[in-house]
Design brief:
Blueprint: E1 3-9, H1 14-24, E2 32-38, E3 47-53, E4 68-74, E5 89-90, E6 97-102, H2 107-116, H3 128-138, H4 149-161, E7 168-173, E8 179-185, E9 190-193, E10 197-201, E11 213-216, E12 221-226, E13 230-234, E14 247-248, H5 264-270, H6 272-282, H7 284-296, E15 300-304, H8 307-323, E16 328-331, H9 332-335, E17 347-352, H10 358-369, E18 373-378, H11 384-388, E19 391-394, H12 407-423, H13 427-446, H14 449-461, E20 465-470, H15 474-489, E21 492-497, E22 514-518, H16 525-536, E23 541-546, E24 555-558, H17 566-570, H18 572-584
Helix pairs in contact: 2-3, 3-4, 6-12, 6-13, 7-12, 8-12, 8-15, 12-13, 14-18, 15-18
The chain binds fructose -6-phosphate.
Length: 602
């Protein structure tokens, strides 16, 4: 949450570079954005700042040429969505600019102390305390003081960072110096080694246009960026590290264009057949590795947040059904409270598109401390999760720009399906099923079923509530379908285990209430059909997603029978419905309100 992008170097279009970088990071937060730049050619140089409320979209910057700039796109935590609360924030003198991703948990006490010492605050953010603490740390310094003013800035940033509680990444621009400093704990920061200058960003994807040589800052590290050098420090000791690791990133360049699609959500839904076929072809060995680790562990825990948790829960069913193996699904934010029994024989598999979700990372780290072996299904190479685990498996879904998880979700299911079959010595059968699922998704997206769902969306968009039911592996799919619909269209949608309905939920059904029923060809079919009948008897409008026709369906979205891959196929019609309902309600599917991709705060 919150995107950071900085550049210092020979190019004199630093504000434009930063603006372009922020546009790539906007999915991390789109409440407001801002850039600070060092005024070129003047000594001492002044700080130039612009800030705007709202999405960055097609914005341009009015900042003049500069060789150093630092920007931020905000997902609000402390303080409302206002220009004053937009980053960068400045100290009392307007000497330096600070941008921040994360939360300063002790900001209230620090603010009280700073106010008592005469500082004035211009915002309600937790971030602003950092500016005033730095101001104090640097008071009395002039650019000519000491041997190396940039080194002094780095030391001051580390001194302040040591006083902050919570998980944060910060960047600091002092226009009097030709450098910028950064530090991180928890929230991600990546350094880019460029030809004509150096970069700082919260995600590697924003840097790949400029360089593939990256250094991922670890927790408790700080950095100093000059036009010609990148230095990494240990925050605790203030010491410079020798030869920080430089990664040569090989993953495909981000395809930035919409390729003719109106939204990234539509594009990413459409990419699923290609992603799934690629997984079947290229990641079967990795799935076998995962299967072997799962079969040899004493206990197995599949952990993720949001959609990734739904994929994990589906994996729990797949492993039970296909491999007769128990694999617990636990929500990332809860796993920390449930892991006292982990030991060296346990396996924890983290599922994450971004690899930066803090609730997941925290629980994985504490599992590591207990000696558990860690694996991950992760989409972003070099991300924190990728670097943390013993055996990362790349989803290879390509960058996911829409805030909603679509192709990364089905990719996780694809690996889990192959791994469940591999655990039974039937990897080839798993691959074949995955390819069948890819073919069926391709058909859904190219035949008249999209039209059918679009027409259905008009009816659903006018509803107040929508319910989705499924049993067995279709239960987590009901949860996922509901999440997709509500987060993008703001229509109240809830997913339930089909059997739970009569234990209370059925009271919610009213005349015309739309209900989606997931009814694949498995042992759940008869029971879920009974559930559908019970809803219909109370006035519900029944939308069946099933290979089978039935009188109970008011609307039937027919899907092919792909056996244990049914969950993968059944994920897609609700994705399309969610997208179409959002459009019918006049909403932007790529940037739903209040959300951000990559949830790096607690
Ligand atoms: C839903 C969605 C979120 C994410 C969740 C975990 O469409 O995108 O629920 O699935 O925030 O994110 P990752 O997979 O990056 O850990």
């Amino acid at each position: 949450m919150c995107g950071i992008f900085g550049y210092v170097g020979a190019q004199d279009e630093a504000p434009q570079l930063v603006l372009a970088g922020l546009k790539k990071l906007e999915y991390r937060g789109y409440d407001s954005w801002g850039i600070a730049a060092r005024e070129a050619g003047l000594a001492p140089s002044r700080l130039l700042v612009e800030k705007h409320v709202g999405k960055i979209g097609q914005a341009t910057t009015s900042l003049p040429s500069s060789h150093a700039a630092l920007g931020h796109t905000r997902w609000a935590t402390h303080g409302g969505v206002t220009q004053a609360n937009a980053h960068p924030h400045l100290d009392c003198q307007g000497r330096l600019a600070v941008i921040h991703n994360g939360i300063v948990e002790n900001h209230a006490e620090l603010r009280r102390e700073l106010l008592a010492r005469g500082h004035t605050f211009a915002s309600q953010t937790d971030t602003e305390v950092i500016c005033h603490l730095l101001e104090e740390e640097l008071t009395g310094d002039s650019p000519s003081d000491g041997d190396e003013p940039c080194e002094r800035l780095a030391q001051a940033v580390m001194g302040v960072f040591r006083r902050l509680d919570g998980l944060s990444a910060i960047g600091v621009l002092d226009p009097q110096l030709e450098c910028m400093a950064a530090a991180k704990n928890g929230s991600p920061l990546v350094l880019g080694w460029g030809e004509e200058g150096n970069f700082l960003a919260s995600d590697s994807s924003a840097l790949l246009d400029h360089t593939r040589k990256l250094t991922f800052l670890e927790d408790g590290q700080a950095a100093l960026l000059t036009a010609s050098q990148l230095m990494v420090y240990d925050v605790a000791t203030g010491e410079k590290l020798n030869e920080p690791r430089v990664w040569d990133i090989t993953w495909e360049q981000e395809v930035d264009s919409l390729d003719g699609y109106p939204h990234y959500m539509a594009k990413e839904i459409a990419e699923q057949p290609v992603v799934l076929r690629k997984l079947a072809q290229e990641q079967a060995d990795a799935a076998q590795r995962l299967a072997d680790s799962i079969m040899s562990a004493s206990t197995v825990h599949l952990v993720g947040c949001g959609s990734a948790a739904h994929a994990a829960r589906c994996g729990e069913y797949l492993f039970s059904r296909i491999a007769s193996r128990q694999a617990n699904c636990v929500v990332g934010s809860e796993f920390g409270y449930l892991e006292d029994f982990l030991d060296q024989r346990s396996l924890v598999v983290g599922l994450s598109q971004s690899g930066e979700t803090i609730d997941l990372l925290d629980s994985m780290k504490s599992a590591k401390h207990r000696g558990a072996r860690l694996s991950a299904l992760v989409n972003v190479e070099g991300s924190s999760l990728y670097r943390l685990v013993d055996d990362p498996i790349l989803l290879s879904a390509g960058p996911e720009r829409c805030v909603l998880a679509t192709k990364s979700f089905t990719a996780k299911l694809g690996v889990l399906l192959m791994a469940a079959y591999a655990a039974r010595g039937r990897l080839e059968a798993g691959k074949a099923l995955l390819e069948q699922a890819a073919d069926e998704i391709q058909s859904i997206l190219t035949d008249n079923r999209v039209e059918q769902i679009r027409a259905l969306a008009q009816r659903v968009a006018a509803a107040e509530h929508l319910y989705i039911i499924g049993r067995g592996p279709s239960y987590p799919m009901a949860l996922e379908a509901a999440l997709k619909i509500k987060e993008v269209s703001y229509l109240h949608a809830e997913g339930f285990a089909g059997g739970e309905l009569k234990h209370g939920v059925i009271a919610l059904i009213d005349e015309g209430t739309p209900c989606i029923v997931l009814a694949p060809n498995d042992e759940t079919f008869r029971a879920i059909l009974s559930g559908a009948e019970e809803i219909k008897a109370r006035g519900g409008y029944i939308i069946g997603i099933s290979p089978f026709a039935s009188d109970v369906w008011d609307e039937h979205i027919a899907v092919a029978d792909v056996g244990e891959a049914a969950s993968i196929v059944n994920a897609v019609p609700p994705q399309v419905l969610a997208y179409e309902v959002a459009l019918a309600r006049g909403l932007d599917p790529d940037k739903p309100r209040n959300l951000a991709k990559s949830v790096t705060v607690k």
